[in-house]
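Tokens as discussed.
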């Protein structure tokens, strides 16, 4: 992996990936550099596009989203306008956790959370099936979802 990042930058990214709420002081202590250096490095990581935002990890079950599924979606046409329309609409559907535009057998994968099977059926029938460019869907239930942060060395 060729990168312009040094080991301190990678340590900072790794810390923020696991807890975006760490203070500048906490990061500086863990990386063993001055707080001012930490601040400057984080600012540069943002400017260069390495850090795109900070996200909260929400417990879906506490929100009543007891079932998570991956919905594989095939489109009947591959046009930029259709892809853009689907991305726009799907990202607005309640319950969508993540949207993936795919290469391969499926065009999209939607990771969604619903309270029960009735809500899942409604999601498919009342939202997805109203889009005439959807050819088919395939639903796979998520048994366990865990964020793993092993992408940085």
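Sequence:
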């Amino acid at each position: 992996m060729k990168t312009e990042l040094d080991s301190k930058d990678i340590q900072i990214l790794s810390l923020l990936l696991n807890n975006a709420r760490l203070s500048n002081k906490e990061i500086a202590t863990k990386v063993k550099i001055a707080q001012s250096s930490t601040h400057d490095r984080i600012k540069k990581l943002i400017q260069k596009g390495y850090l795109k935002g900070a996200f909260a990890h929400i417990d879906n079950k506490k929100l009543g989203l007891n079932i998570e599924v991956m919905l594989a979606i095939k489109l009947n046409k591959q046009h930029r306008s259709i892809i853009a329309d689907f991305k726009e609409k799907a990202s607005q559907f309640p319950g969508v956790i993540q949207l993936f535009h795919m290469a391969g057998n499926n065009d999209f994968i939607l990771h969604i959370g619903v309270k029960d099977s009735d809500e899942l059926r409604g999601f498919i029938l009342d939202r997805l099936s109203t889009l005439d460019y959807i050819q088919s869907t395939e639903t796979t239930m998520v048994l366990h979802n865990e964020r793993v942060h092993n992408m940085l060395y």
